[in-house]
Amino acid sequence: MEAVPRMPMIWLDLKEAGEFAFNAAVKKSAVSVPRDFEGCSTLRKYLGQLHFLQSRIPMGNGQDAAVPITWTEIFSGKAVTHEDIKYEQACVLYNLGALHSMLGAMDKRVSEECAAGAFTYLRDHFPHSYSVDMSHQILSLNINLMLGQAQECLLEKSMLDNRKSFLVARISAQVVDYYKEACRALENSETASLLGKIQKDWKKLVQMKIYYFAAVAHLHMGKQAEEQQKFGERVIYFQSALDKLNEAIKLAKGQPETVQEALRFTMDVIGGKYNSAKKDNDFIYHEAVPALDTLQSVKGAPLVKALPVNPTDPAVTGPDIFAKLVPMAAHEASSLYSEEKAKLLRDVMAKIEAKNEVLDQFMDSMQLDPETVDNLDMYNHIPPVLMEKCAALSVRPDTVRNLVQSMQVLSGVFTDVEASLKEIRDLLEEDEAQERKLQELLGRVPPAPGSPPGLAEVSKECSKYLELHEKASFTNTELHRAMNLHLGNLRLLGGPLEQVRAALPTPTLSEDDKQVLQNLKRILAKVQEMRDQRMSLEQQLREMIQKDDITTSLVTTDRSEMKKLFEEQLKKYDQLKVYLEQNLAAQENVLKALTDANVKYAAVRKALAEVEHKWNTTVQTLVASYEAYEDLMKKSQEGKDFYTDLEGKAAKLLERARAACQASEAHRQQLLERELKKQPPPR
């Protein structure tokens, strides 16, 4: 339809409050609320605070603090009194639904679902014996009326939005279904007797709406048939819509002018559609017009629902003004809930610890350290300890030359000492040989009296020096060997860094080896990810349990509902438990994959271990050469000092040896001349 005519809606009167021994200011604001959404908010807050109050103070039926509470019954106008705070709540809840119905009947056409929600909560959670207007039959009637009117509002919007014809037809059919339920309740004799005079007015309006919205439904089914070019069906649907609208017009006698205008407008639309469709089919399409009962009936689409009411929702009630009043029973229930939480945590932790123990033992047996299983990166850099030595030598470029020069000086002094001692030894040996010749010539063994005494001392001292030199010679040889061993390494450390890097061993891996290594690293990363996720989930669970305090909810919950509340509250941990279960279940597959990867990694691991050993040995050798430099220089200097001193002593001893040998030779000449004089002249 080009425009959407509106039908009037049914709304409910608010109950009037009577006597209630409560704070006058609170009572006034709660029972004399403005007829707007602010009034709905006030009623919700008051309802919530009443709920908080009843959970702390025994004001229920037959309890110690119960006081008389009076409200007026809607239909009879009689005052009804009960000593039960739940009666106050029920009446406030009724007024909340009635106020929403009033707002929904206004021009904005909203709030019907809220009214249905309030009446549904009242029907399902409170006794039906308080008063006639809150009986089960009346509340069910109210719910169907509100849902029907809510669906009616949705229908208006759907037509204004030009939604598809079939959808509009289904929405309209559902309006009919809701109103039929309401009409059945209105036709019930018991309900009729409870409602009194108002029953006839409501019944007449609802019956008229049933036919009206059935006509709207068939109008849009005809429009759908037109879209599908089913011109015979279009005619029968439009005819049915016209018939139902005529029935609605008959039932609309006595209704206000707005209803009559809506019906006339709709008649113009449907009548025009029917005449046009019939004419087109008779003269153009000539399709057979099926019987209505041979076509599929329109099934309603319930797109509205009673909005749930939560009387203790803090977003609605505001702060609990009785929060500091916590009954002992609530504390006891809180302790029981804490034990339930502790049990949950124990169960989860037992599973986690069992899996962690298996994982730790498995990883220890594998001896796979994720940090070092792939140490290829270290071969791309000179280690810091070696860089430090290279840097130290770079500021002392003469290191190698100084060491070589020092050893050369030491060798020179060593040679000089060795030459001096050799000459002394040769002089002594020559003197000894001359002495033997003289003894053989003279024919006597003991030395001749008057021999120079200095040679014996020289010989003794020479033997001493030779012994020192022999010992020092071994040390000198070791020193030279050590120098030759470290000299090349020192030259390397003092040279370009590229040469140092090139001197360090590096592994050579095939593409297959690299793939094996990459796969192992990936699985080890999965293991670590599994560990981290497990720890995170455990921490989340502990923090969640620590912060989980439902004392406020326990205060407002009946003892018989505690177990159910515990079950509902513990459901908040279900998702976290599912994540943990998935994590724990994944461990078996991850470890199996790691075992397979480790088998393939064995050969690569051996090759990498050998190269790493060579690499470490080379680094240690180079570092040792650097650290040996100072020691070599020190020992070289000590050797020079020793041989310089020994050289001086050897030089002096050589002079003494020469002098003693000369004196010994002169003495032998004297002896020889003397012996020649004693011999007789030849014949």
TrEMBL record:
Primary localisation category: cytoplasm
Compartment(s): Cytoplasm; Endosome
Entry keyword annotation includes Phosphoprotein: no
Keyword S-adenosyl-L-methionine in annotation: no
GO-annotated cellular components: endosome
UniProt record, GO biological process: early endosome to late endosome transport; endocytic recycling; protein transport to vacuole involved in ubiquitin-dependent protein catabolic process via the multivesicular body sorting pathway
Keywords per UniProt: Coiled coil, Cytoplasm, Endosome
PROSITE patterns documented for this protein: BRO1
Coiled coil: 414-444, 520-547
SMART domains: BRO1 (SM01041)
Annotated Pfam families: ALIX_LYPXL_bnd (PF13949), BRO1 (PF03097)
Protein name (Swiss-Prot/TrEMBL): PTN23 phosphatase
Residue intervals of the BRO1 domain: 27-359
